[in-house]
Every structure is written in structure tokens, then in C-alpha cells.
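P.,

For your records, the input lines for the assembly:
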Amino acid sequence: MSARRILAVARRIAQGFRRDERTLGLVFVVPIVIMALLGWVLNEQKDGAVRVSIVNQAGLIGDRIVDALQTAAAEADEPMTIDTLADVDAAREAIRAGDTDLAIVIPDSLLDDLTSGTRPTLTVISEGTDPAAEAGRFQRLQALMADLAGQLAVPGAPAPIVPRIEVKTVYLSPDATTVDVLAPVFLGYFGYFFVFLLTGISFLRERIGGTLERLLATPVTRGEIVLGYTLGFGIFATLQVIILTLFVLSAVEVPAIGPIPAFTIGMGVESAGSPVLTFAIALILSLGAVSLGIFLSTFARTELQVIQFIPIVIIPQGVLGGIFWPIDQLPDVLAAIARFLPMTYAVDGLREVMLKGADLGSSAVQVDLVVLTGIALFFVVLAAGTIKREVA
Amino acid sequence: MTGTANPAFEARRGVAVEATGVRKTFGPIHAVDGVDLELAAGRIYGLLGPNGSGKTTLIRLLTGLAQPAGGEVHVLGTKMPSREALSRIGYMPQSEALYPELSVAENLGFFARLEGRSGRAAIDRVLELVELGDRRGSPVLELSGGMRRRLSLAITLVHEPPVLFLDEPTVGVDPALRVQFWSHFRRLAAGGTTILVASHVMDEADRCDELLFMRGGKVIGQGTGRELRARTGSENLEDAFLRLAGLDSEGRPLGDRGAVEGRPS
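C-alpha cells returned:
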């Protein structure tokens, strides 16, 4: 093992990058653009006014509900409009025409139900094409209805007490947004993705361009090539992770200048733990991507075929790695697969550190670091194994 | 010239490359089928044969890039494959094998460092040799095909190896540059360098000290151009090759009667 030759390989990679502005852009600018876009969408997602139409079949008592809902809607933080429609058919037609989002049908049996002590049923009609958006609307409608529960009491009977709910959390503030939870893991994910893609293609070009053959006709060893690559791409992975970490953690307010409105650079995610540890986890993950890229380039004949590994390697890790769905909630088979993915441990580590403020003393973080390092080393050995003196 | 003296090589002074019964198969194909050869130090050998005759595979076996299925290769007395011996071998692959985004000097510098030669002097020397001194800062992307070939040769020579394996070094090289290449080879051989040049063009054959004809993975004839012509009663090397291969002047098989034994017994 010669440090001189490892450095020569790393230097060669750095020299290649220097003239390739587009790739530099891919490494340093694109992840930030994507993160910024993500932060923008998630943070400033517009809660469009929910348009509710009420079909009142219950007469006077129904009118009380309509009035109360209209009052409550006017006072609500998030906009909501409430009107009335004559019958269920009109409501369905309005939803079909896109004139309203939800229709509430107040049954004509309402008064009888209330006096006889039966639980009344309100029917809510929705479009039924976008569960996520509709769930949000239901939630807001339900919040409104909870406040109204008292108004449904029959005159004379005591109003049921609806408790007010105050939310407190162990880790983040109750106001934490999706960005605060997703930013830490995307930090790792993007680093991994870009490093994998670049290494895979670089090494493929090494194989098909004949330079690998020329390399192997020099005294350089396979281990030296893989370590040189890891070092060379490691420098770029390091810079990329530093830039991404800074972008995620910091928020620089830029005041309005002329027609340009004020905006913020950076996502201003509050990290509970050490930024250095955050950086270390993301970096070890990315270094593993270097040898994975070298290893998988063996199975590609063209650049296009390297790209084809993205849906096989990168996307499943995004789905199974715990970014959106906790590993514990996955079906057993998928959870078992997830335990073998580096992303799983990186996501866990990044969340432990950034959200829960865990440090190196935390056994969870220790396990994550050890497993990530182990996976990276495993692929270094595997990658070195695929570089045979017999190529072409 | 050899740098580190190897006792085995000293014992067989004069033989730089030796192969005995070397074989290489790719599935059912016998790419190299039992080749014996001895290359003497300071001579230029032409490895001639049609495409697919096994020239490249033989060279890769000699450099240790491929593992033989049978037989042995020794370079300067060291059994191949040997990483230690690689620093005394210069290998010019048939493909371009350059980093297109790197400059001329960066390409050279990289391979020089791997060979343990990091000095600017070594790079300047070969750049001057291939007349690329004025392009040292240019990225390979901007070079013409001929310039790329010259750079490829410069990389092969940067560590001053005593043994050179050149796989079709003059493909795509214009006639004037080809003459230059051959005069470099001649000068290097005069300094004691052993050179094996693979080619499928017969007009380069006369520039070699000795020729090896290859066909179907076998060496079917070895000797000087004059010897091979005389032995086969041919006027030119092309005919000599065809006779040795058992083919008529149109390239059709002659059958048993026409085949000529190429090897001096």
C-alpha cells in the first residue's frame, strides 16, 4: 500500500473535476437547489380556503349548526367558506364542477336523534381523488365541529364539555414543520445519491476508456485504486456535505431590495445536536457510495446502464430507509431488507443527532456509526475485488 | 538499463521475455493456443496477424494483465503476473486510454507518479520526444487523434522501461508520424530496450528485427523478414504469411499440401 499512489489517484480525480464546471455544479449547486425547493414547498405550502357546502335537511336546528359553523369559520386561523345548497344532488354536482370541496349533509332525523339520545350522523361528501389533501380538509372541518359540539345540545340539557387540547413535545417544538423532520435525512440522501452517480460513471469510463487497463499495467494495486477514488471523491463529498449542512442549519435573512421581496437563504432547521456529528454521519454514508459506485460499475457497459442503477439502488433506499415511513411500521420482509441498507442507519443517526440531540455517548448513534463504517469498508473490499487484472 | 538486476535474468542474459506453452481460453475460444517465444534484449519484434488472431491477448498475457490458462511467462527473469515487474514494462494499449478532461501534462504526471517518477524532468523528456511540449497544458479533448497517440506513447515511455509492449501503436497515425514513431523505437532498441509491436499492417514488418506471425492463437512463423520469405519461397511477407497459414493468394485454405512449416526446427 503506497500513500503516494493513493494520493496520485485522488489528485487525478480532483484534476478531472476542475475543468468540468457542469459536474461541479451537480455536486455543489444542485443539492442546494433541491433542498431549497423542498423547503419552500413544505414551509410555505398554501392552505387553500376549504369550501364547505351544507345541505340542511333538519330545518331550524340545522340552521343553528350552519350559523355556528359560519361564525366559527370566520374566526378560524385558516380560511374556510361555508354556504348552503338545496339538496344532495346539487352538492354532488357542485363538487363535480369544482365549486366546492366538501359537502355536509345534516339529516332530517337530527332533532329526533338528539331528543332520543341517538348519536346523529352527519354525512360528508368529498371528491375522493386526493386522500392527502382531503385528509387535511377533514381535519380542519373536524376541529371546527369539535368546537361546535356544545351547540348541538338540546335546550335545557347540559352542554357536553369538550376539552381543549394543548400539544407539548419531547424533542422538537410543537410548531415543528415537515421540513424540520425531513431536512436532516435529505442531507444524507442527496450526498449519497450524487456521490454514487459520479463514482459509478467515472469508474465506468475508467473501465471502458482503457485507462483502467493502463493503470493495472503500472505497479498500482487494486486497493490503492479504490482508496484513491474514495479519497478523491471523499474530498468532494466532504465539501458537498459541509455546504448542505450549512444550508440546512443556517438561515440568512436577505431584506427586500426594490422589486425583489425579502427572502431567506438556508433552511434554518434547528439542530439539537452537534453539527460535526451530523457531518460525520453524512460523510461516512457518502464514502460508502464511492465504493458502491465502483462495484456496480462492473455490471454496466454504458453510462446509461449506470443511470439504470438509480431506481434499483437509490430509490428503494429512499422508500425503505425510514425517511418517510418508520422501519418499525414496514411489513416484516421489507423491514428485514431495510436493516441491510446504509440509508436506514444514516437516517436514524441523523435524526438522533439533529432532532433528539444525541451525541457520541448515545448507543443508537454508536450503532449507526459502526454499521455505516462497516458497510463502507465492506464495499471497499468488494469494489477492490471487482477490479481484476483481467479487464476488457 | 534494467535497473534492478534479477539473478534469473542474469543467468539467462539476453533473453528479456520468455513464454512457454502459454494458453488462454475465453469459453470455447482458444485466444492464445500454446505459444512459446523468446525475445532478446535490444531487439524489435513485430507481432503480425489478422484481427482476432490473438495478438492483444498474447500481449496482455505477457504484461500479466491476463492470467494464462496454462504455461508460463517470464519478463526480465520474473514470472508474470508480477507487480514488481510492471515498473519495468511499458504497455501501450490499443485503445486511447487517456483521461480526456485532463491536460497532456496531467495525464503524463499521473502515470509518472504511479511509476514513482514525479519529477518534471521525466515529463519534459518524453514530451519533447513526442513533440508535444507546446501542448502540455491542453486538455486531451482538444487534441487531434495523432496527438493523442503520441501522448499515449509518451505515457508508455515515461518511466523508461526496458521492455515495451505496444499494441497497434500506429493505428490512426499519419505516415509522417509513423516514420517518427519507428525512429523512436529504433533509438530505444539501440539503447537496449526490447520492443514487441503488434500490428496487422504488413508494411511495418520490414522495420522490425524479427517477426512473429500469429493466426488462430498460434505463432505460425518466426524469423527475420528475409528468412520467412526465403523459407516460404514468397516474394513478399503477405504471401509468406498466407503460405504459413496454409492459404492461397486469395485467402482460401490450400489443404495439407500447401502448408509450410514456419518454425526453424
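Two observations worth noting. Residues 213 and 241 of chain B are 7 Å apart (CA to CA). Chain B touches chain A at residues 63-67, 81, 83-84, 86-87, 89, 91, 93-102, 106, 110-111, 113-116, 118, 139, 155 (CB under 8 Å).

Regards
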